[in-house]
Amino acid sequence: MRQVTIKALARELRLSVSTISKALRDSHEISDATKRRVLELAARLNYSPNPYASSLRGRKSRNIAIVIPEVADSFFSLAINGITSVTKEKGYHSIICLTHEDYKDEQDILKAFHNGRVDGVLISVSGTTESGAHIRGLMDQGVPVVLFDRVLPDVPAPKVVTDDAASARNATQLLLDHGCRRIAFLGLSPQLSISADRLAGYEAALRENHYQPKAKDILSCGAGQQQNLLAIKKLLRQKDRPDGIVAAVEKLAPLVYQACNELSLRIPEDVKLICFSSLEIAGILQPSLSTVTQPAFEMGAKAAGLLMKLMAGKRAEMEVVVSAELTERVSSG
User: Fold this and answer.
1) Cα gap 30→37, rounded to integer Å
2) Is 56 helix (H, G, I), strand (E, B) or coil?
3) For residue 38, what are the contacts with CB-CB under 8 A and spacing of at least 6?
4) Residue 43 CA: distances (Å) to CA of 9, 13, 39, 55, 301
5) Each residue of 157-199: pLDDT tens digit?
6) Alpha helices (H) along 209-252
7) Residue 216 pLDDT
8) Radius of gyration for the chain, computed over Cα atoms and rounded to the nearest angstrom
């Protein structure tokens, strides 16, 4: 007789593999009614756990995966420090995996974790990630996942984020208060959570001040820095060019400085700039850069703390929102 598997139970009850597994373990996350359905079907079909698979699941690797787009961005470097400050104390090793803003790479990395190589995953998704199916698939295998900074609404996992929309609104308002009348927004893919939320905050500030957001002032940048530089220069060559810029990601700020220098535009006299950035050298740039700074270390530590709870079988908050700090320097006027 063919052995009944958890996947077979899941298909029969139209539940996820993760739900079946948790119900069989009597997890507090599953309702009593669902547990009864699972146990009744398991008894009727003479289900018995695969001892080999169970031994693999029970064996802890003491490894945590940190899946991020890049490490050149100072936000992620600081976030890693925050994560390891928690995980190292708990006796876990961190495996850092870079997706290079590539959805396919991200899928392949998570697929490799289905075999028990890691006990949990912390992830900030790439700029080209289209859906959370690959993350949900990993969770269905019983691997705890926590998202931070760049998150996906369709993934039912704990998330640590900043108040992106409010922060972008405040940044845009600062430029308006300093006399800007045409403000451009530089972001990454509009499907990326941080870009979408920051764009929404930018647009809200414009409308509150009786300005209509214009598509030509919204620039979606990619992974190629040279292409991004050319796009920014094209934006600033327009006859009615922007007199202010809100840059939604750190790596775009140096490109604005470079573009303005090559076009003989002065910051902040000709173009005012504020950027979401954790750069420690923001204050000594010429001119110094006005920033919206996320508490990256704190976000990493909080995300790691949530993951530790999940791996211990405890409840974890589904969303933690931390405040970003706006620091006004010379570049915004």
Assistant:
1) 11
2) helix
3) 9, 13, 15, 19, 20, 23, 24, 30
4) 11, 14, 6, 22, 43
5) 999 999 999 999 999 999 999 999 999 999 988 888 999 999 9
6) 225-236
7) 95
8) 23
Residue type, 232: I
Alpha-helical runs (H) found in the chain: 6-13, 17-24, 32-44, 51-58, 74-87, 103-112, 133-140, 164-177, 193-208, 225-236, 253-262, 296-311
Q: How many domains does the chain have?
A: 3
Tell me the two tokens of residue 283.
């204050």
Mean pLDDT, contiguous 10-residue spans, the chain (333 residues): 76 90 82 89 77 53 94 91 96 96 96 89 94 94 95 96 97 98 94 93 98 96 91 96 96 96 98 95 96 97 98 95 97 96
- The predicted structure's pLDDT at residue 18: 86
Residues of the domain holding 172:
164-293+327-332
Distance in angstroms (rounded) separating the CA atoms of residues 39 and 126: 39
Query: In this structure, is residue 213 part of a structural domain?
Result: yes
Q: How far apart are CA 17 and CA 141, in angstroms?
A: 7
Residue 1 forms part of a structural domain: no
Tallying the residues shown for the chain, one arrives at 333
Residues 198 and 259 in one domain: yes
Q: Could you tell me whether strands 325-327 and 290-293 are parallel, antiparallel, or unpaired per DSSP bridges?
A: antiparallel
